[in-house]
Amino acid sequence: MKKYKVYYERMFEDKNLDSMTTTQFVEVEAENESQAYEIAEQQIYSNSHTEDFDDLNLLYCEEVQKVSQ
Predict the structure, then answer these.
(1) Is the pTM of the predicted complex or chain greater than 0.85?
(2) Which helix (H) or strand (E) holds 35?
């Protein structure tokens, strides 16, 4: 397994502004980048009840370190 940081933007609709975005990342353990995106998306949406946002845009991911098994 490898550890990845998956960067993403969350878009918020705001009545006073057109929209706002914030760029953040989540760390996941996965076999490859493709799986890292899938796991990250699941984690982000599973937390959507505490983190309110209107749209999600996965930007890129990078390998951080290898995880020993």
Answers:
(1) no
(2) helix 33-46
Predicted confidence (pLDDT) per residue in 25-68, tens digit: 999 999 999 999 999 999 988 876 666 677 788 999 999 966 56
User: Which helix (H) or strand (E) is 62 found in, with range?
Assistant: strand 55-66
Q: Is 69 among the domain residues?
A: no
CATH code of residue 6: 3.10.20
6 close to 25: Cβ distance less than 8 angstroms = yes
Burial group, residue 30, by CB count within 10 angstroms (0-12, 13-18, 19+): buried
Look up the domain containing 47 and give its range: 2-64
Nearest to 26 by CA among 42, 10, 7: 7
Question: Structural domain tally of the chain?
Answer: 1
